[in-house]
């Protein structure tokens, strides 16, 4: 049998399994809650029923502030990608694509770079670029969306990595290194370190080649269909109920279309950033990232009403996140409150040495990420256990911390939480996409683990 045929058969089998077995992500999150609750009652040190219930309730509502921050990153990133100048750029890139191989060669580097700079931008660019390419070239749409999501997976090794950023930020609530040692960990020791940067590049290069190899045969291609999926990108797909009648010259209409409001907001935001960075030095956190995205989107959309319309279109894609965040917050609460997460982390730490701790931190993170698909929340759970172990064993603190972050990259390829907005914007069922990203999970797991073990 031809090796290429056999490989495609494996992928087709995975796609079939995910389509048959994997339920809707919201249903999956409920199932994970059931599993975690049972595990907590059976094994956690504080797994009594009252503790499970109170921890679930606390986690469900404690995450709401963070959930709004994440949704704002997605919405403000969408408003940037929705701007006409960005849309023209995406269409220009899409017109250069004639084959599935060229599609992969375009999507992987563009989405990876965008995600490396900011995970929200990477999600949006990947989904919209995939749609633009699929409109022009006969490619398997699930394959293409899976490729963009696989390229996005490197985000936790980039400049928007909440674990790396928090350890580099003086006074950050999640800077556990500073709390323990009084020192911050610069990005040069994490994001730009060879053991992080090299495997990040390797994942993009290797997965590009693998995706080119495993594109379905022409007779098995399921192409993009606007009529079936609807125009989830929102650009003119339906009449805006908030739009005023064309040609109206009322005060309200003139105010909506005047750039003065945009200029005022830009002045406020730029002024704040200038004053703050002058006083404390350049620093990025979640709120600053949202502000920068807001300002960039306002500048690109030019008028307040155009920006408001873009955010309304973005809001169509955030419903599933609004639904799932509280559920995963409840899971996080159960794992933290009952001690289940600490038990998982301590089990790995107990057998660690200074050399193996980063790898064991990585492996335990793979498990926890499937249940807590948020790097910030994940670090708050696992960090308090792996960091003291690193200090007591004199292991590398940056390597141990980034082991947690890099495992987020890997496990996200099986955990559908972050794929939800991508498939919503692209307009495709998530099950077909996850059949392909399962391959990315295996390959990236090997690459990142080897890097933690072998690269100085």
From TrEMBL:
Pfam families: SCFA_trans. One of its GO terms (molecular function) is transaminase activity. Coiled coil: none annotated. GO terms for cellular component: plasma membrane. The chain crosses the membrane at residues 26-44, 56-81, 101-129, 185-213, 260-280, 286-305, 325-345, 351-372, 435-455. InterPro entries: SCFA_transpt_AtoE (IPR006160). Keywords: Aminotransferase, Membrane, Pyruvate, Transferase, Transmembrane, Transmembrane helix. The keyword Transmembrane applies. PANTHER family: SHORT-CHAIN FATTY ACID TRANSPORTER-RELATED. This is Serine--pyruvate aminotransferase. It comes from Caballeronia mineralivorans PML1(12). The lineage of its organism: Bacteria, Pseudomonadati, Pseudomonadota, Betaproteobacteria, Burkholderiales.
């Amino acid at each position: 049998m031809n090796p290429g045929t056999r490989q495609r058969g494996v992928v087709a089998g995975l796609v079939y399994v995910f389509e048959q077995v994997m339920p809707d992500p919201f249903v999956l999150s409920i199932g994970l809650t059931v599993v975690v609750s049972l595990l907590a009652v059976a094994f956690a040190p504080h797994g009594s029923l009252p503790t499970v219930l109170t921890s679930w309730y606390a986690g469900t509502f404690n995450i709401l502030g963070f959930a709004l921050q994440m949704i704002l990153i997605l919405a403000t990133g969408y408003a940037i990608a929705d701007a006409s100048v960005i849309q023209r750029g995406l269409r220009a890139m899409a017109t250069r694509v004639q084959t599935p191989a060229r599609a992969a060669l375009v999507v992987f580097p563009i989405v990876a770079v965008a995600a490396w700079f900011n995970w929200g931008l990477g999600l949006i660019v990947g989904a919209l670029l995939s749609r633009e390419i699929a409109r022009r070239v006969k490619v398997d749409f699930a394959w293409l969306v899976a490729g963009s999501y696989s390229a996005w997976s490197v985000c936790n090794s980039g400049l928007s990595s909440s674990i790396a950023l928090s350890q580099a930020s003086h006074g950050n609530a999640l800077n556990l290194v500073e709390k323990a040692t009084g020192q911050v960990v610069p990005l040069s020791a994490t994001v730009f370190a060879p053991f992080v940067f090299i495997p990040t590049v390797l994942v993009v290069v290797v997965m590009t080649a693998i995706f080119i190899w495993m594109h379905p045969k022409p007779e098995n291609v399921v192409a993009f269909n606007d009529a079936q999926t609807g125009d989830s990108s929102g650009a003119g797909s339906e009449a805006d109920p908030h739009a005023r009648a064309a040609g109206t010259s009322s005060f309200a209409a003139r105010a909506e279309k005047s750039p003065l409001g945009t200029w005022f907001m830009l002045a406020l935001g730029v002024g704040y950033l200038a004053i703050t960075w002058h006083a404390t030095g350049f620093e990025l956190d979640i709120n600053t990232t949202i502000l920068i995205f807001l300002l960039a989107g306002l500048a690109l959309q030019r008028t307040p009403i155009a920006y408001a319309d873009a955010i309304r279109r973005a809001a169509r894609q955030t419903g599933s996140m609004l639904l799932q965040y509280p559920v995963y917050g409840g899971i996080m609460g159960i794992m933290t409150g009952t001690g289940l997460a600490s038990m998982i982390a301590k089990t790995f730490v107990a057998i660690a040495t200074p050399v193996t701790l980063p790898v064991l931190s990585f492996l335990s993170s793979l498990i926890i990420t499937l249940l807590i698909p948020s790097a910030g929340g994940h670090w708050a759970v696992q960090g308090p256990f792996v960091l003291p172990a690193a200090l007591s064993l004199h292991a590398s603190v940056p390597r141990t911390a980034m082991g947690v972050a890099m495992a987020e990259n890997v496990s996200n390829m099986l955990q559908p939480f972050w794929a939800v907005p991508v498939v919503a914007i692209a307009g495709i069922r998530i099950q077909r996409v996850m059949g392909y990203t399962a391959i990315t999970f295996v390959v990236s797991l090997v690459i990142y683990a080897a890097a933690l073990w072998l690269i100085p």
